[in-house]
Amino acid sequence: MLGTKLILMFVLFCNVKVLFAQTKGALFWESEICTAEEERLPYVTVRLKSENQTYVAASDKYGQIRLKKTFVLEFDSLIISSIGFKDKRLKITEQSLKNRIYLDKKIYNLDAVEIRPKESKLNVIGNGRKTAILSAQAGYNSMQGLFISSNGRKGKLEKVRIYMHNGGEKKWKNRPFRLHLYSAAVDVTNQLQVFDELIEEELVVALASRFGNWLEINIAEYDIILPERGLLIAVEALTYEEYKALGIIDKKLVKNNILNTFSIGYTLKTKGNKNIQPWDYINEKSGWTQKYNRGKYYYLIQAVISESDSVQ
User: Which domains does the chain possess?
Assistant: First the structure.
C-alpha cells in the first residue's frame, strides 16, 4: 500500500498485575497506569515507537492497558502521556515494564504565568456533519479517504477525527488501522493527484472511540502544516493476517459474508461540503478511484487545524 481527559467520580487503586513478554515479532504487555497516590489514570495515551513505526493505544476507563500482540520486528521505546502529567519514556525491556507505571503530575508556577492574547484558533475542516447516515465497510489492506481542499486556509494540523461505526459487530469501531496523511489535489479532469505522504513513519492507531462513535488522534507532534493544494486523510485496514496475529479475529467474514474489518460512517453530498471529495484505494491497479462510492458517499472524516498569523 501507499507507503485524554476524563474525571471519574470514584477512585480506582492500582493492583500489581503485569504480564510482559517480547520476541522479535511480538509484544505482550498488560499493566496499569497510575498516579503517585496509587490512583489509576483513565484514557492515557501510550505510543510504542520504533525507528519507522508508531503504534498508538490507550488505557481504558479503569487505567488498564493491554497490548496483546504487535506485528513489527521490534519496538524500542514506549511513551506514556496524559493531560496534567509529565510524559514518561521507557525503553521496552522486562525490567522497565515489569512493575506498575507511575506518572508524575506537572507542577505549574503560577507566578510565572503570563496572560497573552490568543495567537491561534482551532478550526475543523472536512466533513462537518456530526453523525453518519450509514457506513461503508473497509476491505482488507485497502483505504478509504477524504480529500479536503485547503481553500486558502493556513495552519498546523493538530488532530484527526474519524467516525467509526460498529455495523453488526460490537467491536468493529475499536479495530486498529493505519492512518495516512497526504498532500493532494484534484485536477481539472476530476482526478485525484496524490503527492507526498506527510507522516514518514508507519502510524498504526488502536484507540477506542471516546466521544460516541468519534475517534480522535492527536498528531500535533508531527508539526504538519496544512498543504497548500489540499489534504487527503486515508484510513487503511490491516491485512487479515495482521488482525489474526493481533488476536482480534479468527475468520475473514462475519454474518451475511461481510468482511470482518471495520466500517466508517458517511453522509450524502450537501451544499456545505463542496470542498471535500471521497476516494477509495482498493489496490495498485485501480489506484485512487470513486468507482465504488460514485463520489456520493462522503466519509465522516475531519481534521482540526490551528490557524495563526505566524504559520508560514
Answer: 19-103 (2.60.40.10), 120-308 (2.60.120)
